[in-house]
Write a structure and sequence with these properties.
Elements: H1 3-7, H2 27-62, H3 69-117, H4 131-151
Helix pairs in contact: 2-3, 2-4, 3-4
Length: 153
């Protein structure tokens, strides 16, 4: 599911799939979205640190009349812009994380139900052969990546 769809209020759970079907995403799109999101978040954290340092430096230099009020105002706007971007990106990551956690819970419930419904004389099916196995592994990986993004400082 792309980040734009999540911004519009869509989630993995209301993707239109019937119960018993495993929701599937275009894997390359999902991975690209995570990479772009992680990169944007990390870049914006760097921009915020630079903007904060510029405001502090320009404010200190202002006392010696080397810096104009305009330069300080621009630095403060740059810092505010970076702070706003961080808030927006963090909200997107948190929404993606909640959706991935809900999807994982649904997939695990589906897997448990499918396993319980199998006839007792059926030999056990290896995890890689069960339909939900890969989707569960993907959801768990997505959750780990999103948690890593949120941990960035």
């Amino acid at each position: 599911m792309c980040v734009a769809a999540l911004l519009l209020g869509a989630s993995v759970l209301d993707s239109g799939t019937a119960w018993g079907q495993i929701p599937t995403d275009d894997e390359s799109t999902r991975i690209s979205d995570l990479v772009r999101l992680a990169t944007s978040y990390a870049d914006t954290l760097g921009e915020l640190k630079i903007a904060t340092m510029q405001v502090e430096t320009l404010t200190a230099l202002r006392q010696s009349i080397v810096v104009t009020n305009l330069e300080i105002a621009i630095a403060k706007i740059n810092r505010q812009t970076a702070e706003n971007k961080i808030r927006i990106l963090r909200a997107i990551v948190e929404k993606e994380l909640a959706a991935a956690q809900a999807r994982l819970a649904m997939l695990k419930q589906l897997e448990a139900t499918t396993t319980k419904l199998a006839p007792s004389d059926t030999p056990p099916v290896p995890p890689a052969s069960r339909p939900a196995w890969r989707a569960i592994a993907d959801a768990e990986a997505t959750i780990r990546v999103l948690e890593m993004i949120l941990a960035l400082q």
